[in-house]
Amino acid sequence: MIGWVGGKEFGLDDPSMFERTLNRIHERIRRRQYVLTLHARREMLEDELTIYDIEHAILCGRILERQRDFETREPKYCVHGQTLGGVDMEAIVKFGPTGKLVVITVYLC
After folding, report:
1. Which of 36, 42, 74, 88 maximizes the CB count within 10 A of its CB?
2. Pairing assessment for the beta strands 75-82 and 62-68 based on DSSP bridges
């Protein structure tokens, strides 16, 4: 699928489309300006993931897609990366009202 931004054509799977957002996500992780929801913590424990796995996957990963929250209509992002052990995982994240990154859920692929 093709889209247009500022008169420039791009594929919706074009990584540059999410580059600025991914940089903001990385900044929040590096500065420890993020929170995990209770659901994300439960999933983390169920999949035997550590906080280091989640940080690594987000910092070394890429945004697969932008989604809209069904209830709030806020944008959220699916970030695909790998754990420290090299296992594929995804994290669904969004920016909260305070500017912190909210990790909504995490799961192994």
Report:
1. 36
2. antiparallel
